[in-house]
Design goal:
- The protein is an all-alpha fold.
- It folds into two domains: 184 residues, Growth Hormone, Chain: A (Up-down Bundle); 192 residues, Up-down Bundle (Growth Hormone, Chain: A).
- Helix content is 74%, strand content 0%.
- Helix 1 crosses helix 7, helix 7 packs antiparallel against helix 11 and helix 11 packs across helix 13.
- It starts with 11 loop residues before the first helix and ends in a 20-residue tail after the last helix.
């Protein structure tokens, strides 16, 4: 039995509109860190404290997000996803507005902890909501599109945040995100057609907790391989600026060009993944994306060993790793949710938490080796991504005969 069927039939237009609302709300909450970044250097002066304390403004948000992932994964087993999604938006908005009125650093840090926890609700619930709106291929395309838009946030949000800080002071980023989040939440609540009541959980269909999910080898196949590929890419992105500047004689502009090229290729490949699945099948596409990502990491490692150590060359190399993630990202995420047999929200929460934990741990482990330059970084990325391919080869795949494929009551294909 499929647990995410809509309570009533919705049209293709309603499904697209609902998907746009879900993605818009998710991206808005995702900007919680990047939009604030430009004002952080000024906060020691603003609040009369030191930079170490101010960094807790960022750390508290990340800590709250980690706790919120698990919390919303559990809550979704008992409450409708639509209701929780609206609550997540509204709570995030209210905490943001409250943060704009604080006059000392510690209340701001406390509110950032709550803000991060509230923001994680959208990340947990959005994949399940989207999967309930569309067919499997449609959901892959929609999640790929969401990933493409989310990939632009780290580049565009700091620019918007800098403009807001320059023209309206540090509170502006909190006021803008708070107002928009509350507005979207209230409109979605008052206008049911904006976000139809899809994805209401049925207790008898819900897997019993995170422990059972972690023992599900089929789920682990898709979720952990996805987390490893993404963690490998993020470890490279988080560490590359220091490596480029300290060991390659480059500037931050070299990193920006590299990252821009990679994001563009991710967007193209992520939005093509649905068509690839339709032609070749989900399993072949997920495996191909994993292989491409590993080849991208090996290409970077080969250049690190034998290349001229020119940071300008990274833009010609980094795109392959991004392409691999884009190809397998949407299909792999959707298959991970399907493997959870109705427990989409816990599955999503656990997967995202794995990405967060692996990225943070691997970045910290690589940090002491930054003076060794690109070879140390790239061999670490290969070591992170290689197990993803092993997992895909060793663990059992999800068998989904056409007659048993989970579909919503009225499958749509965007």
């Amino acid at each position: 039995m499929h647990d995410t069927a809509p309570e009533h039939s919705i049209s293709h237009r309603q499904a697209i509109f609902a998907c746009a609302t879900i993605i818009g709300g998710t991206v808005l909450l995702l900007s919680g860190i990047d939009l604030v970044l430009p004002s952080v250097p000024a906060m020691p002066t603003i609040f009369g404290t030191d930079i170490a304390t101010v960094q807790l403004v960022l750390a508290a948000y990340v800590a709250g997000s980690g706790a919120g992932l698990l919390l919303f994964g559990m809550l979704a087993a008992h409450y409708g996803r639509r209701r929780l999604f609206i609550a997540s938006l509204t709570a995030f908005g209210l905490f943001s507005l409250m943060a704009a009125f604080v006059d000392s650093i510690w209340p701001l840090i406390g509110l950032r902890l709550l803000q991060g926890a509230a923001a994680s609700g959208a990340a947990v619930l959005a994949p399940g909501l989207i999967r309930a709106l569309f067919s499997e291929i449609g959901a892959m395309r929609a999640i790929g599109a969401m990933g493409s838009i989310e990939a632009l946030v780290p580049g565009l949000a700091p620019i918007a945040g800098a403009w807001l800080y320059q023209h309206y002071d540090w509170q502006a980023s909190f006021t803008v995100t708070g107002t928009l989040a509350v507005a979207v939440g209230l409109v979605a609540l008052l206008v049911p057609s904006l976000l139809p009541s899809v994805g209401r959980k049925k207790h008898k269909d819900v897997a019993h907790g995170y422990r059972r999910l972690m023992a599900n080898r089929v789920y682990i196949r898709y979720a952990l391989s996805h987390a490893l590929v993404l963690a490998g890419l993020l470890t490279f992105v988080f560490t590359a600026p220091a490596v480029i500047i300290e060991t390659m004689g480059g500037t931050i502009d070299d990193f920006i060009v590299m990252q821009f090229t990679g994001v563009c290729m991710f967007i193209v490949s992520a939005n093509s993944a649905g068509s690839f699945v339709k032609r070749f099948g989900a399993e072949a596409v997920i495996m191909a994306g994993t292989v491409i990502a590993l080849l991208g990491a090996l290409l970077l490692f080969g250049y690190a060993l034998f290349g001229p150590n020119d940071p300008g060359h990274l833009m010609y190399l980094f795109w392959l790793l991004n392409t691999g993630l884009g190809v397998r990202g949407g299909p792999g995420f959707v298959r991970a949710l399907a493997a959870a047999h109705g427990d989409d929200d816990r599955a999503s929460a656990l997967l995202l938490l794995a990405v967060m934990a692996l990225s943070a741990a691997c970045t910290a482990l690589v940090a002491p080796f930054i003076p060794q330059g690109l070879p140390a970084l790239t061999i670490a990325v290969v070591a992170i991504i290689l197990p993803a391919l092993v997992i895909m080869l060793v663990l059992p795949r999800l068998h989904m005969p056409a007659e048993q494929t989970p579909q919503p009551a009225n499958p749509q294909e965007p």
